[in-house]
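Notes from the 1:1 (GR / supervisor)

We went over the backlog. Supervisor wanted to see one worked example end to end before approving the batch request, so GR pasted a single chain during the call. The sequence is below; no edits were made to it. Supervisor asked that the structure be written out right there so they could see what the output format looks like.
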Amino acid sequence: MLTKGEIKYRNDNCFSSNKIPVIGYYITGEKIGEFDSFWKASKFTNLDPYKISLCCRGKQKRVKNTIWKLAI
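Structure output shown during the call:
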């Protein structure tokens, strides 16, 4: 059984190895913000991180009236 500290450590670091910075925009051109990862962007916008990654890779044009690009 895991302790509370181990659970917190796993939750905090579960996405640390795959951080790819992204920038989000509304369709109107207004900037949503810059985020360290797909996961943080999804938490802020309540969008699916997989869909955000598809948009960044060019497989999808937009995610619910937002456009996403890699910040690299």
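Supervisor's comment: Helices lie at 4-13, 38-45, 49-56.
Batch request approved.
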